[in-house]
Structure formats: C-alpha cells, structure tokens
Amino acid sequence: MTDDDPVAKDGDDLTARDVYAIWQIRDAVFAVEQQCDEPDVDGIDLLPTTTHLWCADANGLTSYLRTYVTEDGTRRIGRVATRKDARGRGLSSRLLRCVHDRWGAEEIRIGAQAYLEEWYGSFGYERSGDGYVEAGIPHVPMIRLGS
Length: 147
Prior knowledge:
alpha+beta, 3 helices, 8-stranded mixed β-sheet, 33% strand, acyltransferase activity, transferring groups other than amino-acyl groups, GNAT_dom
C-alpha cells in the first residue's frame, strides 16, 4: 500500500489492528500535539454508519478521517488528522475528495478547527454558524451542500 491508495472501511468491518492504527494517529495528533482536553473515544468509531478513510506507509497511517451519519441522518466528517512527518503532501485533500466522490450528492457537515476554515472553503464548505470551542480548540461549523 502506498499513500496513493486510500483505504475505506466501515466501522463494523474494522480489525483490531485497524482500530489500533486509527487511535494511534489520532492520539499523536489530538492528544499529544494539540493537547485536546476531551476524550477521543466517543462511541462512533465502530458503528456501521461510520466510514474510516486513511492513507498509510510502512510506518503506519499517514492521514486519516472518519465520516458518519448522525441519528437525524446528517453526514458529518471529523477527526481529520495527518501524521507530522507526512504533512504538506495533500493527503487530507485526497481523503476529503474520496468522501466527496462517494457522498458528494449529500449535504455534509463538519466542525472545522477555525484555522482550517479557508482550507475547507476551498472544497466548497461554507461557515454555517458562530464559532465555538471544542476540546480546548476554536472551531467553526461548516456545511457543504449536496450537488
């Protein structure tokens, strides 16, 4: 597998090795680097309505995101993370495009870290409300209307 081959797996199809790799990249980015002050494990990862997408190399996951459908039927994207040594190579963009290829006809929502508002905007997301703080980090709600 190379960085050019994104993987997509539904929550109920993940292996223990997949879960470990996912939590490893999220722990490194969110807990260690960003010092998030809320738990990462939230009961969403293993649901059949959750899809995990990632790129990997010989050292593990290089970039990751998850998308899921909420109880009210809204598709959301979250937990977007790229390993420190893999940044600047367009990996998160590649994963986001995979989401849009699969679910682009649907409305998609994201709680984006505020500093990434312009980046998400380049993919058609628009701010949809007031900013807020989540896990100690400023966020903005954003929406991409289905095509």
